[in-house]
Model the fold of this input.
Amino acid sequence: MHRTGELYGQFQTLDQQKETATLGMWVFLVTEILFFGGLFLAYTINRHAFPTAFGIGGNMLDLTLGAANTVVLILSSLTMAMAVWSATTGKKSLVTIFLILTLALGGVFLGVKVVEYKQKFDHHLIPGHNFDISYCVKNPSPVCGTPAELATEEKEIEEGLKVDPDLNAHAQLYFSLYFGMTGLHALHMVIGAGLLLWLIVQSAKGRFDANYNTPVENIGLYWHFVDIVWIYLFPLLYLINRHLG
Amino acid sequence: MSEHIVSPKIYAVIFLALMVGTFLTVFAAGRDFGRMNIVIALGIATIKATLVILFFMHGKYSSRRTKLVIVSGFFWLAIMLGLTIADYSTRHAEPSRSQLNESTASSLMRS
Done:
């Protein structure tokens, strides 16, 4: 199927055809907003019910990695926007270059996420049978962090247990939401990476130009949407209680 | 075609604004503004998201029909969040668990 810029029978002008594609993509993104919205709602209600456990859980995430990933993802949005610009201005080789850059940055983001998940695994913070918020305090080791970090963590958990005897269970709830939300976000990134691969192949064949670039534009919209989800996830998950530490 | 092409210059400015926003939100999180903490964090996130939608996603240059669809998404999200939270926050006759925890959380902050 070689779709180029031709006008399909059901449309009167190319502009109308293009607007229809953009509108359709946005309708899909609206369903995505509500899809993620359910998780954000679950987070809001539980965080309000168990602020102490959520605060302590949030402080156990790696702020440096989270902030670095935010920068990486916003940068990938910029390169994606530049890919769309290159396509609409007919710079065919630039389209491919910017798409490859976007894919690479997406890869970096997912790589950092793997490192973070591995850390949580080492710290026994994966919800389930072995979940123990005090694991690192009880078993101090280099993978758990510096003695100073562990001392802060111990103090927080000790204070937390005074106000919330079920701290471990409620922290587990926080980490369930953390993995659910970042996991769904990462799944969207993986799908986005697959779409980008396809775009790169098509773009290398010279398919996209000023006349025909709808796939670049619409996958671009999807990519930016995933970026927006992260823009909210970062402060909600990583920054809730930093002033305590 | 009559579509609007956004210049790389605008993209660069928006990118810088997003970076400043990211820095500000991390910076603000290190300080305690009490009840304003969450308002500041979500306020910055919303400004960043709006910039992405308006410029990276060309929302500013799209047709009124498309704009209506974009706004409707957030309108429905507001209904879902608003009505559910209203229900949760008014359901308990006795002091709710969250209210109890709130006072204990502030005692944790003082310690």
